[in-house]
Amino acid sequence: MSFFAIILIIILAGYFFIRLIPWLLALKIRSMQRRQQPPETTGSGRSRKKHIRENTGDYVDYEEIEDR
Fold first, then answer.
1. In whole numbers, what is the pLDDT of the chain averaged over residues?
2. pLDDT tens across 17-67, in order?
3. For 63, what's the count of Cα atoms within 13 Å in the CB-facing half-sphere?
4. Phi, psi of 60 (to 5 degrees)
5. pTM of the predicted model, to two decimals?
6. Given CA atoms 4, 10, 14, 16 in this order, what sign does their dihedral have?
7. How would you label 15-37 residue by residue, b for 16+ Cβ within 10 Å and e otherwise?
8. Measured on CA atoms in the order 10, 11, 12, 18, is the torsion positive or negative?
9. pLDDT at 47
10. First CA to last CA across the chain, in angstroms?
11. Distance between CA 44 and CA 20 in Å, rounded?
12. For the chain, what is the largest distance between any 2 Cα atoms, rounded to a whole number of angstroms?
């Protein structure tokens, strides 16, 4: 083999290796997510209520004014 053929093989191998790394990492992340346990529920299961203080203010209805 000539020197240039060896260099070409090294460059191509490096290119495919660089393209393969993200795919392998994504595969590993997906497998880790599948193995992960679903999160346990906390609390007594009550529904959340909005906490609005009494001094927050009132709803004000408005009317649109037409432009002349």
1. 82
2. 999 999 999 999 988 888 886 666 665 656 677 777 777 777 777 888 888
3. 2
4. -115, 120
5. 0.40
6. positive
7. eeeeeeeeeeeeeeeeeeeeeee
8. positive
9. 67
10. 86
11. 47
12. 86
